[in-house]
Amino acid sequence: MSTLTKRATVYFDPAIHRALQHKALVASRSLSDIVNDAVQQALAEDAEDLAAFEERVHEPLVSYEAVLKELKANGRL
């Protein structure tokens, strides 16, 4: 973990907290490191999703009704 850190209070469900404590013990890591890594992964996934949306911004929009109509016309519904 970086030397420049911020402190925050996070409330976990007791069972999740217990599982995190066990995981930290088994992995010889701090609970903070495990949670920090999980949050970084979630933010990285969000960044990938946003990039994918940006790449597709100029694609034509297709309504839900149009998709259903096409599926029905093709005998899939």
TrEMBL record:
It comes from the Bacteria. InterPro entries: Ribbon_hlx_hlx (IPR010985). GO terms for biological process: regulation of DNA-templated transcription. This is CopG family transcriptional regulator. It comes from Geotalea daltonii (strain DSM 22248 / JCM 15807 / FRC-32) (Geobacter daltonii).
